[in-house]
Design a protein that fits this description.
This protein has 160 residues and is α+β, with helices and mostly antiparallel strands. It has one domain (3-155). The protein is built from 3 helices and 9 strands. It has helices at 3-21, 33-39, 140-151, and strands at residues 49-56, 66-70, 73-78, 82-89, 93-98, 105-110, 116-124, 131-137, 154-155. Strand 5 and strand 6 form a beta hairpin.
Length: 160
């Protein structure tokens, strides 16, 4: 590889890195403190309902916003140290999807009356861009960690 070609490759690589690290848009957040405080209290859902928390707290790819979809419709963007609270009908299957490097990754949640679900949305290294996926938290220690992360995060406004 010639020197000029190598320099061109390095410039393209640096430009791609700069685009990945900068210029990220901000996700709209809930400004009503009463709503945020109620969400962060983790109170049991009303009769016939279930709660699904989707949160993001990783350091990898923290400046990249990633699209989330609920039942095939855009939910909004996932941003580091932000969360969504979905109040859904119990007995419903919630279909979550996220953009990833090679197509969307998905998780389905069969909701039950009165239950609270914690779903961590995370990023990891990919071949070219970062990949995103979901992780359901079910163990008591994991739920405690999820609640602590949510308490230290901002509540995002869903677009649906």
């Amino acid at each position: 590889m010639g020197k000029q070609m190598r320099n061109t490759f390095v410039m393209i690589f640096l430009a791609l890195c700069a685009m990945m690290l900068g210029g990220c848009s901000s996700v709209p957040t809930v400004t009503d403190e009463a709503v945020v405080n109620e969400a962060k209290s983790f109170s049991p859902p009303a009769e016939g309902k279930a709660h699904v928390y989707i949160y993001r707290d990783g350091w990898l790819g923290r400046r990249i916003n990633i699209d989330l979809f609920l039942d095939g419709n855009p939910l909004g963007e996932s941003e580091n140290l932000h969360f969504y609270l979905l109040k859904v009908d119990a007995g419903k299957t919630v279909h979550l999807e996220t953009n990833s490097e090679f197509g969307n990754n998905k998780i389905d949640i069969e909701t039950e009356n009165g239950k609270i679900y914690y779903v961590r949305h995370y990023t990891r290294f990919g071949l070219i861009w970062g990949q995103a996926d979901f992780e359901m938290k079910t163990e008591p220690k994991d739920i405690e960690d999820a609640q602590e992360s949510i308490k230290n995060s901002e509540m995002s406004v869903p677009s649906i």
